[in-house]
């Protein structure tokens, strides 16, 4: 966790242990290739690349198949949570299959690893980092000296729910009470269920020993999940250590662009990667899949070079997208709209306003519309009498900045 770019060196030469945190079975969006693929494909690409380099890779990706959201949804549907979880996992596997993602070596589910979670919770209590109150087990955050080492956040930034059972409001549950109708398991402390953060500590150490090389997940997991996970792993065994943390945004970029980006950079430690590079990769992919590069632009020339490399590498790895070029272009445009926080109708509306302004020779307004959209990563192109749009690297308001300076 140096926050610097580093050469990747595995703990055991030739072998790599990689653990990817929870594919959440119930995200805000429906399970679909577009919403879950980035996480799967990004780390699939890591694995493929490491395998290609000759490493013996143990890739583990867990499913959180019991948590408050799944229980709430199952109750709402009057469905058994295990049936719901199985259904969601099946859909996830279908998506991964369509996109030719490599399956992890192990895909542990929380509900199949209760024994390991109980054992780690027990160790944590034994090491005086957790306490039992009325059958619930809480982690004592003040016993952990390095909080914030991954995220840079302080414990005061944790969202806490008031709970009179906790000694300190920032403590979190390792093992918690099940409400009536919720699933529970026998434990030394009562019939209850596990908290979230300890699950990955327990499953990761079970499959990869206490020291894994790469631990990854969505960027939203850095805080508090991975921060708390480091704390629980440390509390159970102080020698536990993750070599490199890798986090990705799994919302705003097309999986192809994530793969493309990953191929162009080294692993970074601990968490930061450049969205500017992802914007560049998105723009390059748009041209590649649009299939109409303009030879005379130096930028496009370099994109053609990138295309050759991307295709070569993807074909080595057997990962060329099974989707048509047109479908990929549409998906890249959808992602650009997500990043701009706009709907296509709004873009079309602004295009209409710009056309009208130009008709009225109000070029200051029409230029402003173009600049505002470009600042959000949407470039307008006048093709004959028509104006179309494409994703672009978001432009800064350079003209405006100059005006402000002068
Ligand atoms: Zn995790």
TrEMBL record:
Annotated ranges, domain Cysteinyl-tRNA ligase anticodon binding: 347-390
Keyword DNA damage: no
Gene Ontology cellular component annotations, sorted alphabetically: cytoplasm
Domain tRNA synthetases class I catalytic intervals: 48-249
Cofactor(s) in the UniProt record: Zn(2+)
Keyword Heme in annotation: no
Alphabetical keyword list: ATP-binding, Ligase, Metal-binding, Nucleotide-binding, Zinc
GO BP term (any one): cysteinyl-tRNA aminoacylation
Molecular function in Gene Ontology: ATP binding; cysteine-tRNA ligase activity; metal ion binding
Domain of life: Eukaryota
UniProt-recorded name of the protein: Cysteinyl-tRNA synthetase
Organism, scientific name: Rhododendron simsii (Sims's rhododendron)
